[in-house]
Amino acid sequence: MNSETRSHPIVRAARGGVLSCKGWDQEAALRMLMNSLDPEVAERPEEMIACGTDSKPVADWASYLAIAAALKTLENDQTLVVRSGGAAGLMRTTSGAARVLISGDTSAAGWMYVGTQGALPETHESFRAAAQRHFGGELGGRLVVSAGMAGLGGAQGLAAQMNGAAFLGIDADPARIKRRVKGGYCDVMVSSLDEALRILKNAVRQRAARSVGLLGNAADVMTELAERGVVPDLLTDRTAAHDPLFGYWPQGMSLIEAAEMRRSNPDEARRRSLDSIAAQVRAMIAMQKLGAIVLDFGSGIFERAREAGVAELNFSPERGAARDDGRAPMRWIALSGEAADIERIDSLVMEMFPGDENLGRFMGLAQKHVRTQGLPARVCEMRRADCGGFALSVNDLVGRGELQGPIVVGRDFVDCGAGGAAAGEPVLAAGARVASAPAQATLQAAGGAAWAMIPERAVLEGAQPRMARAIVADGARETSARIESAMSR
Length: 489
Hints:
It contains 18 helices and 15 strands.
């Protein structure tokens, strides 16, 4: 860790109704940026990493300070352009345009990252879909096994329990497991496979929902499970195997030894990780042959195993992502910092969509099990056709004074980007002017949003793919038109 990351203060978003910016759109963007770096939310805040191996809301501490300063002076007819995690300039726009346009792969959900909760709805629905396909609709009395308990993978334990299952999660980093236990996403941490299996065997017999985080190397543990003939009902992986250098721990090495090899000999470190990935996947194949259902959450582990020469990988793992095409990931965050605001909106959801059984079931479980990380928030899967009306109703609640402050309502296409800032890429002064046809086209696509994030390649090429977008429900009448525009795309 360098002196820069050691010296910066703890970042925590402001709460309440006092503005430090010239409007709520700018204030919300600043608070959400800060919330993404809150130690309660970010996986490695000292390195400015929100989740994944290198997903940052900003490139570095200097970029954070420049963006924060720009937001505090940003006028209500200006747009701040953020590229690859740094302030790239300002454009004179209109009051109805997005106040911030983010491009690049450093988004951490377009500054809407709210911690492990962000991955919970999709993970929960994936397990539930598997239960419906293979186990008569229930996971009670079933064993789910997976590796990887970082930000996104950390949701698996609670998601499995919400479906009634017994869950074994494996991770080589004790800090990750401890974080999940502290946050309520895992019941207990153990260091012995025998102890883990004893706990889970009892849970399966009693049909009790239980989760255990086992400290160990995923390849070692999976191999031992296969050798013992342990057959999980569901078997998956949510390590960051797509990035074998930084996202996977090689066998036979401590965390410190692996980190040193990454610095001193990255080619060898990557090779050893690929060998370990191959060992894990071979073990998964062995357990599948014994009857385990394999889910693919898109961690990249099967692709990396092929790269490592796993020739016997001649099957197509069942996809874990089971999101209905008619649904969109939605989140709402209380800028007041008051959990009561989220509780009131939860009630609104139940009032508005009583016929949506899936949504109602998940909301009830989330209210019971999900703890607050940073600013109070809720994440769910909502029918796209319902998103606009829901956001309008939230704005109405704020306008009627039923909530204690504005609410950020966001739609995102990914919860946390996998990439980091481009090393050495120049960052322009925050006061610089940027004018380009692609940027202007993207602003039009983001119409109505307070801020929006789009992959950088799309901005450079002038394309208009799905983007993460946030609106700020502040109770104003004019906000309603912006909500209809932002949430209807």
